[in-house]
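Quick one - inputs below.
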Amino acid sequence: MGEQDKRIQEAKAQWAGGNPDLDKLTRSTDWGDPVEPLYTPEQAEGLDYLDESGFPGEYPFVRGIYPSMYLGRPWTIRQYSGYDSPQDTNRRFRYLLEQGQTGLSVAFDLPTQIGYDSDHQMSAGEVGKVGVPVDTLEDMEVIFDGLPLDKLSTSMTINAPSAVLLAMYVSIGLKQGLDPGVLRGTLQNDILKEYTVRGTYIFPPEPSIRLITDIFAYCGQNAPRFNTINVAGYHMREAGCSAVQEIAFSFSNAIAYIEAGLAAGLDIDSFAPRISWIFNTANKIFEEVAKYRAARRIWAELLKERFGAKNPRSWMLRFHTQTSGASLTAQQPFNNAIRVAYQTLAAVLGGAQSIAACSYDEALSLPTEESVRTSLRTQQVLLEEAGVTDTIDPLGGSYYVESLCQQMYKRIKELMDQVEEMGGAVAAIESGFIQKEIESRAYQTQRDIESGEQVVVGVNKYQIEEKPPVGLAKANPQAERDQLERLAAVKARRSADRVERTLAAVRDTAQGDGNLLPAIIEAVQAYASLGEICGVLREEFGEYQPVKTI
Amino acid sequence: MQRRIRVLAAKPGLDGHDRGIKVVCAALKDAGMEVVYTGLRQTPEAIVSAALQEDVDVIALSTLSGAHNEHLPKVAGLLQERGGEGILLIAGGIVPAEDRPALKEAGVSEIFGPGASINEITSFISEQASPTA
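Output:
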C-alpha cells in the first residue's frame, strides 16, 4: 500500500469515527451484497486497469465495445411494436421511422410465436392482440410494404418458429431484388428462456437447438450481417430474477447454444460474432451500469479463453436493452415516464447498442401513438440534450461503480459455475433449478412490496384516489375476422400441389440431419403457412412438456 | 371442521406471463389453501374439467394478453353448464376497466389488476369461497 493510500485509509477511519451512525445506514444491492455508505479509492483497489478495464473497443471491452462509442455513432432507437394487423403495423412502422426511429422491432401475436395459424382453435381471441399476426408470406409483404430492407435493420421477437420468419424475411428481400447478404436484422431465437419464463416454446430442447444451429449455419453462409440469435436476460429479469441471475442464466443459455454450434461442426468465429443480446434495464441506476460493464468482461473472457475465438467481434457483447416492464405501475401511470427515463439513462451509461424505452401506459394496455412518441422522445432528449454522450463510459473510475462491477463479476461467475456443475443450462432447466430460483425471488419481491420494505411510488406509498384511465389504446375487434379472411383468401389462391410438395420436403429434411432452412424457404415461397410448417415439425419433433415447479 | 379451501390456478389461452399467477399460488399455499396449478395454454374445457375433477372451491385465472373477453366468459359458461356454479371464479392480469362489468355479468366474481396485493386476493378468497365437505 502506498503512502497516499495509507493516508486515505487513516482519514477515512477518522471520518467514520466521527460519524458512528453510518454503519447502521448500510443498504444492500439487488442481489443481496451490502452497499457501503461511502466508496473511496481503496475499494476500487486491486483493479488492474489495463487487464481488467482497458480501452473502449479493446479486450475485455469493459469501457464499451467500440473505440468511439456514441461519439462515433448513437445507439439505435428501436421501439418494440406490432399490433392488430399487418396493415396497422406497417403504418406504425412508417410513423416511427418518420419520427426519427432508426431500427424496427417487430412484435408478433401469440399464435404466430407458438406456430399456430390464425384459424387454429387455440388462436381464438389471441389474433393480433400482443403483436401482429403472420400466417403466410403475404402478411410479411404487407408489414414491410414500402420499406426497403437494405436501408433498415429489423429485429424480430420470435423464438420457436424463428426459421420460418427468417425464411419469410429473406423471401421479402428477394422480392425487393436484394441478396440475403445485404439484410441486417436480428432473430430472438432463444428457446431456453422460453422454457423457463416466457412460455412460447413449441418443440423439446434437442430439435429446438438443432433449428438454432441450422440458422447459425445458414446465416453464416448466406446472411452474414444477420444477428442469428438475441440471447435474452430480459424476460428472466421480468419474471423476477436479480441482475446477477439475469446475466449468469442468460450466459449459461448462450454457452449451451455455442456448444451445440461447435458440436454441429461450426467454427466458433463463424457464428459467435452474430450472437447478440437483450437485457433488462431496471431501476437501480448504478447497479445496472455495473452489470453491463462486468458482463462485457465476462463474455469477452469466456469467448477468448474458454472457446478460443480469434475474431475480436466474437468477444464483443453487443446488446439491446429494453427498460423494465415489470417496474411499470397501473397506478398514477405518468410516473412510469419518469421511471423509463432513469432506466434509459442507465442503459446509455451502461453502453447499450440499441434501446427500447417502454411507454408509460403499458401496465394498462398496448401503448398509444402518443405514449410511444413520448418514449421515443425520452431517448432523443438523452441523446441530443443531456450531454451524457459527450465522453465515453462516463462512470468508469467511479469508486462505487468500479467496486460494484468487481462484485458483480465475481457473483455472476459463481452462479455460472453452479449451473455448469449441474450439467449446464439444459440440465438446470430440466431439473427446475432456474425456474425455482426466479419464482422464489419473485415471491420475495412481492412480499417486500407488501410489507413496505421495497417502495413502489404510487402503489405502496404516496397513493392517491384515481379515476379510471381514459384514452387507452383498444384492440380492433374486427382485426381477427379480417385476418381469418385474408388467410382463407391466400389458401384459396395458392397452388395446393406446390404447398404439399414443399411441406413434404420440410418433413424429409426434418427426419434427416440436413439444414432445414432451404426447405423452409421453398415452403414459405409457396405460401405454405407458418402453422402448416410448424405443424409438420410438431409431428416430427414432438412438443415440449413443461417442468412442474408448483 | 371445514376442510381447506381448494384452488385451481390456470393460464387460459396462449399467454406465457406467469410471474403473477405463480406468486399468487405461493401466497395461497402459505395461507393454508390447497393449490393445483395447471400451467400455460389451457383451454376453457380443460380448465373446467380439471376443476370439477379436482373438486375445487375456486378457479383463479390469469390473463395478460388481452384475450380475456374470449376466455373468461367461456369458462364461466362451461361451469354453469356442468354444474360448477358453486365454484368461485376470479381472474387477474391486465383487464381494462371498461371490460369488467360484462365479465362480472358473465360470472367472474372479481378481477385483480396490476398492483393488487396478495393479501387482498387471499382475504377475498377466504371470505367468498365456500368449501363443501
